[in-house]
Design a protein that fits this description.
Length: about 90
């Protein structure tokens, strides 16, 4: 089976002429759990609409899993600071 070559590249549109939904969310930034959820839902739609390849979505999900693991470890082992702020998804 031939590999698909219509991957979504930063700043470019796909074969359907529209930018991937997950890319729009990611460009705004992922700083909260809600942002992360919107990006993952967008990614699911993008895969189903064939806006991104399954290989690319796998890489994004793996990176997202690692990002959530970092947040989990920060929350578990972080020293309580003065304002007791919960860790966010980004610094």
């Amino acid at each position: 089976m031939a590999k698909r070559s219509d991957r979504v590249v930063e700043g470019k549109q796909n074969h359907k002429g529209s930018t991937a939904r997950s890319l729009v969310v990611a460009r705004r930034g992922i700083a909260t759990a809600s942002d992360f959820k919107q990006a993952m839902v967008g990614l699911m739609f993008d895969v189903l609409d064939r806006r991104v390849t399954p290989e690319m979505s796998n890489a994004v999900c793996y990176a997202g899993k690692n990002m959530l693991k970092v947040v989990e470890l920060e929350q578990k082992f972080a020293v309580a600071n003065a304002n007791k702020r919960l860790p966010s998804l980004t610094a």
